[in-house]
Each structure stands twice: as C-alpha cells, then as structure tokens.
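User: New here, please read:
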Amino acid sequence: MIRKPVRELILLHRMKPGQKGVVVSFSEPGDSAIRRLMVLGFLPGEIFVLERSRPDYLIRFGYTRLAINKRVASMILVNKMTGTMVNR
C-alpha cells in the first residue's frame, strides 16, 4: 500500500473548513466574480485550503486569502484532496 492523496470531484461549497483542494474548472467562467478570482490567480490547477465556510467561504492559496459567497463557491468545481491509503 502506498500513501497517496485521493481526490474527489465536488463543488467548493460542499467542502468543510480545513480541507484542501485543487481547482478543476468554473461552471460560469464569464461571471464577473469568477473573472475577478481568475485575475487574482485562482485558476484551474491551483491548490487551496478552505479555512472557513461561514458566514462566507474563506480560501487560502499561495500568499492570498479571499472571501467568497456561496453563489460563487457553487460555481467552482474542485478535486477535494484526502490522504488515505490506496492500492497501487
């Protein structure tokens, strides 16, 4: 058995505080809030940590921390990372 991160494809608003994820895509890339996130470097492939989910979602990636609302979080598809054992 090898310890590898197992990934689960979900929407960001379904994550719990403390979980780590990787941005996969945006359901509405033309949305103005999503465009602002992309300008700030929150792009597909970016690894982030969800620090808080109430009252807004606080995400940390690199040296940046951002708060987004549930509407925006529900437009972000991510691979939720967990550290479980898997057979290779």
Notes: Residues 2-86 form a domain with the SH3 type barrels. fold (CATH 2.30.30.90). The chain has two helices and six strands.
